Amino acid sequence: MKNIIIKILVSIVLISGFTQCRNTNTDKSKNTTPLTTVTISQAFQHLLYIGLYVSQEKGFFAEEGLDVKIETAGGDAQAFSALTSGNTDFAQGDPAFVAIANEQGWGGKVVVMAVNRVAVWGITFDPTIQPFSDPTGFRGHTVATYPNPNTSYVVQKQLALKAGLEVGRDTKILEVEMGTELASLQNGRASIAQTIEPNVSTAELEGGKVVFSYPEAWGDFAFTGLMVSDQTIKERPEMVQKVVNAYEKALNYIHTDLEGTLLVAKKYLPHLKDEVIRTALRRLIDSGCIPQHTQINMDSWSSLLQTRIDVGDLKQMPTINLIDNTFAQNAKQ
């Protein structure tokens, strides 16, 4: 009887050891599973792209089994060119390029809405100009914008026309290169300048003030999106879903953890003061520029396309749907 008990105990020990060994091997197998490499070409490295950076730095891409490489192209056209040439899996920038390329025979979709408003504000250093919400307030002022056909210029012109102002007579538009808009105020060439964050918050620290909110005046607008080719969607839908899943998590994080988001922003924009980044992030979130979800708003998309038709970039509204919300809808579940 004693020998039987000993044999049973030995068997239990052996089985237990085998189970532990098997579990250990399984854990090792999980830990050594290779990540899927994905490349995303961004137009610029900019605070507006905070959703992309949070996806990366907070580990949301890694959670989805992705090893994401973020490359900076140096412009919207360059980022989109990398996509159409097959040199990147995704492009983040002006989503209008999907519609423009569609007219030329290229197939692709917008799968994430990264910035959902016209993320510019009217700044002045003139103490006599008071904040206004009605575009008629531009009467008598010269407004500095980025060069036509930039969205900045188009929006300014359209707002003036809708307010019954004749551009060139009732109000003027001064086209300046990006980065020189605030200088146009200081040298007296313009009385109000459109600019983006973090320039807005920087200008406020230097004595400037916001007198007009374009996000509030214009409403939903597809300002920045994540784009992918139809071929990639067809051949690698699981990978596309994982990227959108991570982005959805990032947008939720941004809207619930400002301090954590601030740390990510500081890593990508170390030259900015903490106060500037904090104020800029708060403004982008509160204004609705950074959306809560990845799903593309149809009104935002239509607003973007109409502006592109107005300036001649597009011949007409696309006859096919160029946004794919199925991934965003799945990510929200």
TrEMBL record:
Pfam families for this protein: NMT1
Similarity comment text for this entry: Belongs to the bacterial solute-binding protein SsuA/TauA family.
Protein name from the UniProt record: ABC transporter substrate-binding protein
Keyword Lipoprotein: no
Subcellular location(s) per record: Periplasm
Location of the SsuA/THI5-like domain: 50-256
Origin superkingdom: Bacteria
Gene Ontology CC entries for this record: periplasmic space
Chief location of this protein within or outside the cell: periplasm
PANTHER family per record: ALIPHATIC SULFONATES-BINDING PROTEIN-RELATED, TAURINE-BINDING PERIPLASMIC PROTEIN
Keywords of the record: Signal
Lineage: Bacteria, Pseudomonadati, Bacteroidota, Bacteroidia, Bacteroidales
